[in-house]
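In the current project phase, the collection of sequences with tokenised folds has grown. One resulting record follows, to show the layout:
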Amino acid sequence: MSAAPEYRWAVTAPGAPLERIAVTREAPQGREVLLEVTHCGVCHSDVHFWEGFIDMGARKVPVAALGLETPYTLGHEIVGRVVATGPDATGCAPGDLRLVYPWIGCGDCADCAAGQDNACANPRTIGVRRSGGFADQVLVPDARYLFDIDGIDPALAATYACAGLTVYSAISKLLPMDPEAPLVMIGAGGLGLSALAILAARGHRNIVVVEPQEQARAGALAAGARAVVDPGPEGAAERLAQAAGGPIKAVLDLVNAPATAELALAVLARGGTLVMVGLYGGAISLPLGALPVRGLTIIGNYVGSPAELGAVLDLARAGALPPIPVTCRASHEVTGALTDLREGRVRGRIVLTDTAR
């Protein structure tokens, strides 16, 4: 008798409703671990890969150029229960509930050896290059990419694998700084609320949020922002400088669109740092002489390392991270979740669960 199939919600055409497809269940080999997916967050980068391209400004790069061929299964904010392990796997056992670190590298390069999988030039990212968590099960190459979440709500823990980890790593590139010095954060969606929680946990008290949506601005104030600014009306740079109340040396751009990058560069004081996080895409024209003259630093941040994920979980277990809004939806609603996220109708994070499978 053949084994029961595994089901995945797969992208079969750019922007089309995801299709539930059956695949042969995988048996873990070597150090691999097989998990039953219990929770999987829906991230804005999932929207880009669902749409089938990455906006690089002068051109839109199809995801096929990254090696993705339909059907492919997205989802990288994964919590699951171990169902089987390979003969060489250690550190977990069937029944364990674990958070997956998805940004795995090749395992052989200097970056991977240094624990910087996210910097690997040949990534094997779960939910991008390997089948992800919009599925019944997920196969993880090594138990070292699994994190114990005992004491943490698993739906919230799922968001830490990307949203929490990404902003923790990005914020680390701006700190330490005087906790009363203004730090400008652009965007108050799921990443923004995660960033506010982590900034509060790390002791920063003067956060000015730039956000066009009124409800999101109110949410940012409730989550600890000292001031909010609507970038829509004219004079946004002047109003932002006034709200900051002092030289702006740090900007965290969680959107990273042409308008947000231009605003960030316009308000940065001499010696300031811009950390670019969002994947909205596009391009800007940059006067190169301004960078050395103003002493500016521009840093791109791509998720974070396994050690940084461990640090985020330590903060959560200590009760230092205020929970962000999480809406749980049944797995079969994945296309609707992606659509709502694309259309800006999501506050916080949507997490798919296995309750309706």
